[in-house]
Specification:
The protein has 151 residues and is an alpha/beta fold. It has a single domain, classed as Rossmann fold. Helices cover 42% and strands 12% of the residues. The chain has 5 helices and 5 strands, in the order E-H-E-H-E-H-E-H-E-H. A 5-stranded parallel β-sheet has the order 3-2-1-4-5, with helices on both faces.
């Protein structure tokens, strides 16, 4: 990725690493996370989530201790989380890749901060365990795509 100028990752959790309300990434994400740590170093990977506390933080501390959570900032789409990511990773904002499943939160935050957005169009979801929450976010993502298409 450095050949493309990406030096750090900011990862959303819900939809990107696991379905909504999960406390740890899905098993199929583990290999990808290991490779990301090999490429970027754990100190340049941050989770930018609405729940930067509790079991999620504990899980990462046990399995990927160098990956940090960004907290104490305004929620996306404000660029504050990415600005803090740049400070913590000691990289310019233009070299941060924000991986998110929402156009009008994480991707918009990346654009506002001068970072790079990576939109996950088919996020992880669990209709079996959280049907109402997942259906709500599916509808929200669809509405965002329609809105952005009108621009």
């Amino acid at each position: 990725m450095e050949a493309h100028g990406v030096q750090a990752l900011a990862l959303d959790f819900d939809g990107v690493l696991a379905p909504h309300a999960a406390d740890q990434p899905l098993p199929e994400v583990m290999d990808w996370l290991r490779r990301a740590v090999t490429v970027f170093g754990a100190e340049r990977i941050y989770i930018l989530s609405n729940r930067p506390y509790g079991p999620r933080v504990d899980w990462f501390a046990a399995h990927f201790p160098g990956i940090g959570f960004v907290s104490g900032v305004r929620k996306k789409p404000y660029p504050d989380g990415l600005i803090k990511t740049g400070e913590l990773a000691s990289v310019p904002l233009s070299s941060i890749l924000m991986v998110d499943d929402r156009l009008l939160t994480g991707c918009l935050s990346a654009l506002l901060a001068g970072a790079r957005p990576c939109y996950i169009r088919n996020p992880f979801r669990s209709l079996q365990f959280h049907p109402c929450k997942e259906l709500f976010f599916m509808l929200l993502r669809w509405a965002e795509r329609c809105f952005v298409a009108l621009l």
